[in-house]
Design goal:
Layout lengths: L4 E8 L4 E8 L9 E4 L3 E7 L5 H10 L4 H10 L7 E7 L4 E5 L8 E5 L2 E5 L6 H12 L5 H14 L9 E8 L10 E7 L5 H16 L8 E2 L2 H14 L4 H7 L11 E2 L1 H11 L1
Antiparallel strand pairs: 1-2, 1-8, 2-9, 3-4, 4-5, 5-6, 7-8, 9-10, 11-12
Helix pairs in contact: 1-2, 3-4, 4-5, 6-8
Length: about 270
């Protein structure tokens, strides 16, 4: 089956993050296209996708090969290369891509510093240009936010000419995931939806609410009227402490002691307590 897709593999060297964002008129595209490993690189494999490009490509990147060398090596060894599409970003931000001559039109790619953007069965090159231009224009954002903006811009530019169905966002960082014991910072997938990018944004908002961080300097002191309000709301819900309630709401990662409260936690508490 053809993974008719547009995607972007990218990295943020300052944050030591690598990731891939993808959208397709294909069921569960996140199970095929995106691959990434922290301090190694990111890979997107699509069109008549060769899923082995993911683990094989990461292994080559781990050995120190450049993105260009990895693309050359993978494509040269694959008899089905003419129908493949591939984007690679390495540990240094180098990038390279391949669009086989047999890929269904419109198909093409664009690579630049820290990103490789590619797509096939698109309305035209404007979709890939939107991916690349948006990435270049959003350096002030976190990597996952940049990738989401890239998907939205590409869809607005025309996207997959067959329509929409699924989308995925994968971002990795060494020890940046759950409880600092995982390298998977973000792994979100929308497998089947009429507007998968909008749904991916919604799910990302939930993820950021649970696992994002607010600088400690922006937390609010739990004294005076605010302290009384929080204790009253917790008591009304039947909880003796903020941590007890936060554990039920999966917000415990945003609670640290009882002298101050993360504004995100305060907003959530106010919403559920009326």
């Amino acid at each position: 089956m053809i993974v008719a897709t547009y995607s972007i593999a990218a990295c943020d060297l300052d944050a030591s993050e690598w990731g891939v964002a993808v959208q397709s008129k294909f069921l569960a595209v996140g199970s095929v296209v995106p691959w990434a490993e922290p301090e190694v690189g990111a890979i997107a494999t699509q069109a008549y996708a060769n899923p082995s490009y993911g683990p094989k490509g990461l292994a080559l990147l781990r050995e120190g090969l450049s993105a260009a060398a990895v693309v050359e090596r993978l494509v040269a060894a694959d008899e089905g290369r003419d129908d493949r599409q591939l984007g690679v970003v390495d540990r240094h931000g180098g990038s390279a891509a391949w669009t086989g001559p047999g890929c269904s039109p419109w198909a093409g790619h664009r690579a630049g510093e820290c990103y490789a953007a590619q797509g096939n069965i698109l309305v035209g090159p404007e979709t890939v240009d939107a991916l690349a231009d948006t990435f270049e224009a959003t350096a002030q954002l976190r990597l996952e936010q940049r990738l989401l903006e890239c998907l939205a811009a590409a869809q607005l530019a025309g996207g997959d000419r067959r329509g929409q169905q699924s989308a995925a966002l994968l971002v990795v960082q060494r020890d940046g995931g759950y409880a600092s014991l995982s390298d998977i910072l973000i792994d979100l997938r929308v497998d089947d939806h009429e507007r998968p990018i909008e749904e991916l944004r919604r799910i990302y908002g939930l993820h950021d609410r649970l696992f994002g961080t607010t600088p400690r300097g922006e937390w609010l002191p739990l004294d005076g009227a605010l302290g009384d309000e929080v204790r009253h709301r917790l008591a009304g819900l039947g909880y003796a402490s903020l941590l007890d309630w936060a554990g039920v709401e999966n917000l415990e990662e945003r609670v640290d002691g009882g002298d101050a409260i993360d504004p995100v936690v305060l907003e959530a508490l106010r919403q559920v307590s009326g």
